[in-house]
Specification:
The complex is a heterodimer of chains A (249) and B (311). Chain A is of the alpha/beta class. Helices cover 27% and strands 22% of the residues of chain A. In chain A, the strands form two sheets. A six-stranded mixed sheet of chain A has the order 6-7-8-3-9-10, with helices on both faces. In chain A, helix 3 packs across helix 4 and helix 3 runs parallel beside helix 5. Classes of the chains: A alpha/beta (249), B alpha+beta (311). The interface between A and B is medium-sized, with 31 and 24 residues.
Chain lengths: 249, 311
């Protein structure tokens, strides 16, 4: 267990979100996420999972309520400080959002380049990451020539390459075969054991059982329920030694 | 020295790496679009307008300096003998007058040459029957202002009652006014061209921003700053503007040279006085640099303004 475990990383207090003048897609959402934990966000299609993730990766401001991230009020955060916060997040978008004119290698390298990592320090980690998601031989391929599953793996590699403090993934296993889904989940677990807080949005109930120490948040018509006590304070402690095969190399 | 070379070398390498990395974030235009051509036309027209403005300024300066101290004394009398007498008397009065640098009675053959285009000199032309005034060309050591003309008038009138005294500058005043108006016109054209360049760059930047909106959003989500994204557009615009600027400068200089040849062929003193000096050419060569700076600044401000709309 890392020293920072149980440190608050995200706090939502009575958050509501509406688009334009429509009715609220998220209502009275309150919860706290702790550092180094693994969360699943579940709910039926249209329950508000993607909207909740948008708030988590700072793509959207709430209509009401308070959001604190990394100990700072994210609502009143000045715009010029957002990039620094976003670099602490890894995001896997449901629609991948790969840059079409860049190769798989350059897409994965993008967060490092944006962060100003020297080019000589980029090649090895990106190559290793592409090997890990079994795309080492497709590193020069552009997204349009990759299958849906391959694009998803590139998106995941891009999200985790910068060793973010928090990884937010929207249906990350939706387009891959079951074996690859398990493999990707193991990658998330390995990252989690290295201290990264992981939030995975999925409607696949089978996936929830694959990570035994995970906590589940369920959204139903924009309201949050707490079937595993994920939102309880103090949080449930889980002590588990890292498995050697899960350690991210 | 070696340490300094190593540090500068490393810095240069880092800068090159960073520039290369930033270039990869968005696809670059590589001069394929219409922007370099548009900028070339704008710069070319600005160069021609500036060259014309500078040539007009030079013409006005030289002509003004030539006529600033010039005074013409006309003896308007129909009787040739009386006219000659008054001319000689006026000349004698002028030669002793204070403030007069030189005074010269214009010889008859020069007067004939002056009126030749209108009256002719061949047999049958009755040029001698026309009473042409005698002319005295006077150069003052100072400007031929109203006070100086009055002083001269008081000195000449007792000796030559038919004398008419005029400052040469007053004859050319309408010409100077016309030159001044043309200079303003050239300045207005330059301002309009600069405005058109800004508007074109603004449109191009917004268009590029719109085309790359999805990529920009991704870069934003990954922690890219507005300055990083603006820098990419700036660099792209600088390349386009530099290429267009060089092309426009060449186009403008060739056009200016051709125009200069045409005017020089007129053989008029006033036209040849308007030739461009090396400082004028230096100013003209700065136009593409100004164009690049204007385009880059416009691109930066428009991109930053548009990015403000994104969270």
């Amino acid at each position: 267990m890392s020293q920072n475990e149980d440190a608050e990383i995200v706090h939502f207090d009575n958050v509501g979100l509406r688009y334009g003048t429509e009715k609220e897609v998220l209502t009275d959402v309150s919860f706290t996420l702790y550092s180094g934990r693994f969360y699943f966000l579940t709910g039926a299609s249209g329950a508000g999972k993607t909207s909740m993730l948008k708030l988590l990766y700072l793509a959207q401001r709430p209509s009401r309520g308070l959001i604190r991230m990394f100990g700072t009020d994210a609502i009143t955060l000045p715009r010029d400080r957002l990039p620094g916060f976003r670099r602490r997040l890894g995001v896997v978008f449901q629609d991948f959002r790969l840059v079409p004119h860049l190769s798989a290698f350059d897409n994965v390298a993008l967060p490092l380049r944006v962060a100003g990592v020297p080019e000589r320090d980029i090649i090895k980690p990106v190559t290793d990451m592409l090997d890990w998601v079994e795309l080492g031989d497709r590193s020069h391929a552009r997204p349009a020539t990759l299958s849906g599953g391959e694009q998803q793996r590139v998106a995941i590699a891009r999200a985790v390459i910068g060793r973010p403090d928090m990884l937010v993934a929207d249906e990350p296993t939706g387009n891959v075969d079951p074996d690859m889904a398990i493999k990707l989940l193991r990658l998330f677990e390995a990252l989690n054991r290295l201290g990264t807080t992981v939030v995975v949005a999925t409607h696949d109930v089978h996936l929830l059982r694959k990570v035994p120490d995970s906590l589940i948040m369920r959204l139903d018509k924009g309201r949050l329920s707490d079937p595993t006590g994920a939102l309880r304070y103090p949080p449930r402690r889980t002590v588990a030694a890292p498995r050697p095969d899960l350690v991210l190399r | 020295m070696n340490l300094l070379a190593t540090i500068t070398g490393n810095r240069r390498e880092e800068w090159r790496e960073r520039a290369s990395a930033e270039r990869r974030l968005l696809p670059q235009g590589k001069l394929s679009g219409p922007m370099p051509w548009v900028i070339a036309i704008m710069i070319g027209l600005t160069v021609v307008a500036s060259a014309c403005g500078l040539a007009l300024r030079n013409t006005a300066r030289v002509a003004s300096a030539d006529v600033a101290g010039g005074v013409t004394v006309q003896i308007v009398n129909g009787a040739p003998r009386e006219r000659d007498r008054q001319a000689q008397a006026a000349l004698a009065a002028l030669q002793d007058a204070p403030g007069v640098a030189s005074a010269r009675l214009v010889p008859q053959r020069e007067l004939d040459a002056l009126v030749e285009p209108w009256l002719g000199t061949t047999a049958g032309d009755d040029v001698n029957a026309l009473p042409v005034p005698a002319l005295i060309d006077v150069r003052l050591s100072g400007n031929a202002d109203a006070a100086a003309i009055d002083t001269l008038r008081r000195r000449i009138k007792p000796a030559a009652e038919d004398a008419r005294i005029d400052a040469q500058a007053s004859w050319l005043a309408p010409v100077f006014e016309a030159i001044g108006a043309l200079q303003w016109l050239a300045g207005g054209l330059i301002a309009l061209l600069a405005f058109a360049t800004v508007a074109t760059v603004l449109l191009a930047s917004r268009n590029a921003l719109s085309n790359h909106r999805a990529t920009i959003e991704i870069v934003h989500m990954l922690g890219g700053t507005d300055a990083q994204i603006a820098k990419i557009f700036q660099r792209s615009m600088a390349v386009d503007a530099a290429a267009g600027g060089i092309g426009g400068l060449l186009l403008g200089m060739v056009t200016t040279a051709l125009l200069a040849r045409q005017f020089a062929a007129l053989g008029s003193g006033m036209m040849t006085a308007g030739g461009l000096g090396w400082t004028d050419w230096l100013v003209i060569c700065c136009i593409p640099v100004g164009g690049v700076l204007l385009a880059v600044l416009t691109a930066r401000l428009s991109v930053l303004q548009a990015l403000k709309g994104m969270l």
